[in-house]
């Protein structure tokens, strides 16, 4: 990949480039999944190659593991790393409390385990991901294959009783067959009304037998780095209560790929 980036890719790139500044020598870093997280992995690889930064990455999917190795990041498992200093990941939505909907890429189970086992989670996003109230993006749940239709039916009944279901629960497909996660499970996407009480919904969903994990990330994200197409980044830190803006140089974006 080379040449001019589109405004949306510039936004993702500058968010990623700013976020990898949080990474210090010796850190164990959770590596998220998705197109924005892929920019972060490339930016981190660039720091490893050009600065000799020594880090261990814990990928949240086979896709991310493959890319991390390709760009020169040493990877290990969460069990080997035990605990992480930082996780950097993308998101499908973030709200003003930095609660998230994730799982658009079908990796939210590993992503949630990895982020929860980290001192700090930094989310990278473009401006389209910010919402006043979660729920415009369909909420993914990971469901085991056994009894899939029974689980899906029960979830639909529960959501209808709670008056949060907007249309329906849809089994995610890829290439005409059910999408299979890295854990060998399936994804059901829940088309909901705006989520008034994400904490309650998350707890209810995870009580249903057959549901492994839902895509709501509550009180897990510490900061969000929002990139813009003109190179500006906003950094919102929920713990510090700060909202800062700066500018990131993005003319070198093509160099990120030069040595790979
Ligand atoms: O949760 C995720 C994968 O499970 C992704 O982080 C989320 O879908 C955002 O992806 P992208 O950066 O491609 O928009």
UniProtKB/TrEMBL annotation:
What InterPro entries does UniProt report for this protein, alphabetically?
A: NagB/RpiA_transferase-like, Ribose5P_isomerase_typA_subgr, Ribose5P_isomerase_type_A
Among the GO biological process terms of this entry, one is: pentose-phosphate shunt, non-oxidative branch
Q: What catalytic reaction does the record list? A: aldehydo-D-ribose 5-phosphate = D-ribulose 5-phosphate
The UniProt keyword set, sorted, is:
Isomerase
* Cellular component GO terms held in the UniProt record: cytosol
Q: What is its EC number?
A: 5.3.1.6
What quaternary arrangement does the UniProt entry report? Answer: Homodimer.
* Name of the protein: Ribose-5-phosphate isomerase A
Q: Which organism is it from?
A: Aliiroseovarius sediminilitoris
* Gene that specifies this protein: rpiA
């Amino acid at each position: 990949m080379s040449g001019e980036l589109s405004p949306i890719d510039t936004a993702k790139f500058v968010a990623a480039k700013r976020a990898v500044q949080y990474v210090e020598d010796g850190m164990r870093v959770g590596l998220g999944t998705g197109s924005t997280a892929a920019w972060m992995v490339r930016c981190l690889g660039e720091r490893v190659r050009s600065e000799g930064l020594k880090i261990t990455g814990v990928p949240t999917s086979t896709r991310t593991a493959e890319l991390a190795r390709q760009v020169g990041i040493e990877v290990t498992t969460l069990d080997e790393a035990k605990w992480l200093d930082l996780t950097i990941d993308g998101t499908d939505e973030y709200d003003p409390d930095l609660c998230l909907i994730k799982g658009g890429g079908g990796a939210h189970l590993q992503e949630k385990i990895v982020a929860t086992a980290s001192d700090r989670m930094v989310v990278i996003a473009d401006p389209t991901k910010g919402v006043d109230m979660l729920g415009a993006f369909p909420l993914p749940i990971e469901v085991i294959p056994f009894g899939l239709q029974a689980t899906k039916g029960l979830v639909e009944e529960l959501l209808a009783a709670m008056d949060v279901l907007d249309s329906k629960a849809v089994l995610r497909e890829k290439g005409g067959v059910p999408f299979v996660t890295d854990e060998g499970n399936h994804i059901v996407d829940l088309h909901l009304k705006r989520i008034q009480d994400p904490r309650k919904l998350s707890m209810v969903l995870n009580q249903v037998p057959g549901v492994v994990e839902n895509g709501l990330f509550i009180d897990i994200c510490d900061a969000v780095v929002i990139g813009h197409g003109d190179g500006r980044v906003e950094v919102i830190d929920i713990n510090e209560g700060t909202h800062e803006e700066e500018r990131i140089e993005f003319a070198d974006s093509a160099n990120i790929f030069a040595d790979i």
